[in-house]
Design goal:
Rossmann fold, DNA polymerase, domain 1, 6-stranded parallel sheet, 9 helices
């Protein structure tokens, strides 16, 4: 597994794009109580933590889509905004990273790769989460779904790629939506089973490589996937 970066630099720099919640950020301990507090405030049906966990990484409205008593769009927008305010001001005082996140991104940056984040969160909230983490001083281009479709639509990833100005890109995520979006954006894809989606689901979605945890990823593995696919 030699270093395959030479064929891409400096003409075509490699971009490594991460999903945020469930991939870089272990945010379940923040999102779950914020969802429960918001649902209680608006007298919505109680959801078990395990039910909310499965929805982490989806657009925020999915956390409040009650099929038995659906909210009107105007009220749903109000609930989502209130949820985001509660999350940011009460629960996001310190962001918890998955093991290996800082070391991995630092190593990738030192190897000349460009780093992006493509998330279903709005950009301001994603930037706030990164700012409150150990990633705050690293060069990361952060892009949320502000007035654009959420994954599996590839737009947020394509926007990230445009800002990074990279021609060869890898998308890393924990959900099938990340993999579908990455493939549709012409990225190589790495799926992580550390969240709610299984190896079988991520493989079926088209992941080029599936690993159990973020700290399973190394530069050697990324070089290997780049070399095998190009």
């Amino acid at each position: 597994m030699g270093n395959h970066l030479g064929r891409y630099s400096p003409i075509s720099t490699v971009g490594i794009i991460f999903d945020l919640d469930g991939t870089l950020l272990d945010s379940a301990s923040q999102i779950i109580p914020a969802v429960q507090e918001t649902r209680f405030k608006y007298k919505l049906t109680y959801l078990q933590p395990s039910e909310i966990f499965k929805l982490i990484g989806m657009p925020a409205h999915a956390l409040f889509d009650d099929h038995k008593s659906p909210l009107e769009d105007k009220l749903k927008n109000e609930v989502v905004q209130d949820f985001r305010n509660i999350l940011e001001t009460k629960y996001m005082t310190q962001t918890i990273l998955f093991p290996g996140a800082k070391n991995l991104i630092t190593s990738l940056v030192n190897s000349g790769m460009k780093i992006g984040v493509a998330t279903s969160k709005p950009t301001y909230l994603a930037k706030s989460a990164i700012k409150n983490s150990e990633l705050k001083n690293l060069p990361i281009s952060i892009h949320g779904t502000d007035n654009i479709a959420a994954k599996p639509d590839p737009t947020v990833i394509l926007t990230c790629i445009k800002m990074l100005q990279t021609r060869v890109n890898v998308m890393i995520g924990d959900r099938t939506e990340d993999i579908h979006a990455g493939k549709n954006a012409n990225c190589l894809t790495i799926g992580l089973t550390q969240s709610s989606h299984s190896k079988e689901e991520l493989t079926y979605a088209g992941a080029d490589l599936v690993l159990p945890t973020l700290d399973s990823i190394t530069i050697l593995l990324i070089n290997k996937i780049l070399g095998e696919k190009h």
